[in-house]
Amino acid sequence: MPSMISQLAVLSALLLQAAAQTLSISSVGAIGTGCSPGTVKAHVNQADQSVSLQFSNFRADTGPNYAISDGRVNCQLTVGVQVPAGYQFAFDQTVLNTAYSVSSGVKVSSSTSYYFQGELSESSGTCGVTGPASSSYTTLVNRLSPTIWSPCGKASIVSINTDLRADNGNTNNSGSISVRNSTDASFIWRRC
Ligand SMILES: *[C@@H]1O[C@H](CO)[C@@H](O)[C@H](O)[C@H]1NC(C)=O
Ligand SMILES: *[C@@H]1O[C@H](CO)[C@@H](O)[C@H](O)[C@H]1NC(C)=O
């Protein structure tokens, strides 16, 4: 019995320690049709263990006055991260603060994927809304799978691609989606 209790104590101490790990960002690069260099900022929220990506002008539009390319935009971020010794992290979901306005039958969606540079596996998630619908502020959640872990305890580079789609299915209906202020990618830790 005493040994079981001490094992539990050790386990909860490890969990607490894992929860207190900190991630730091050393660099951020952005490229894509939805973001020009210098329009994206990233910072780590230690309190809720997430990376907040702030876009200044990231939107997709569809309708009679828009080109097909206006309905498919993306932003590929290259983020240098410093991972504490003995730990690795993985993103589990992204939360996008969006605004959208879509008429009947028009679909808007957001997808996120990420991978660590030099590794083959990628994790991704998508979610969307079909019109008629509109909202000036809605959070869209992309749950990412499978879980892809960072290299163990060292600096690495993670590529995070976010795309927005607006598709009217070749009708004359209109729709748009934009990221209002930020996308927050939350992460989890494990020992390695
Ligand atoms: C879209 O509008 C144009 C111009 O009014 C019209 O010629 C065309 O047939 C419409 N297309 C559809 C799919 O309704
Ligand atoms: C984005 O806007 C929402 C709602 O106004 C707010 O709760 C959130 O803190 C904002 N995020 C950032 C990074 O400013």
TrEMBL record:
Coiled coil residues, start to end: none
Signal sequence interval, chain numbering: 1-20
The organism's place on the tree of life at top rank: Eukaryota
Positions of transmembrane segments: none
Entry keywords, A to Z: Signal
InterPro entries linked: DUF4360
Protein name: Secreted protein
